[in-house]
Amino acid sequence: SSAQAVNHSTLEVRFETEVDELKTKSDESLKDLKNSLKITENNMEILKKENQERKVVFSASLSGGETANHGPYSTDVTLVYKHVFINIGNAYNPVTGIFTAPARGVYEFKIYVFGYSGRPVSVSLQKNGHHVTAAHAFQDQHDVNSSKGVSLLLEVGDVVCVKVRANAWVFDNTFHHTTFSGQMLFPV
């Protein structure tokens, strides 16, 4: 009977020791899990911020409600697209007509131009003051239109605009024929 009591005491001690070890392991596992969740939460915040930075898209037309030819001018002149359809990220400035890259990445731009006969309808899409591509059309009678698209690698602060070419013109009215659009495809 005293041997059973010793054996019983030994079992109780072993049981309590094993319970304590399990509690310690459980506490450590819980601590590791909490740390993992903190890391995951931090990563989620970083991803959310990066995703917000990537949301850059704009589209605008020349006409702010008026019906008008823009040009001809004696030099190339920056067009100010006043009617903004969308401007997520506020990278397009409808006062200056200039898009400024908020983040390094690949961007896609599209230009559509419309005009009437008798004079060239011609614009130049420019990056940091340098010609990249143009949309051009000419015919003796009726109306004309042209379009172009291009993808560019831009650095933070690079600027893109559309200029009506010297001695050319473009037309727009409330039907919004002449537009300038762009969006960030992905950051680099």
Automatic annotation (TrEMBL):
Which of UniProt's keywords are assigned here?
Secreted, Signal
**Source domain of life:** Eukaryota
- Give the source species: Astyanax mexicanus
Q: Where in the cell is it found?
A: Secreted
Q: Name one GO cellular component term.
A: extracellular region
Looking up Gene3D superfamilies in the UniProt record yields: 2.60.120.40
Instruction: Please state what the protein is called.
Output: Complement C1q-like protein 2
Just give the chief location class. Answer: secreted
Output the Pfam families linked to this UniProt entry.
C1q
Q: Which residues form the C1q domain?
A: 51-188
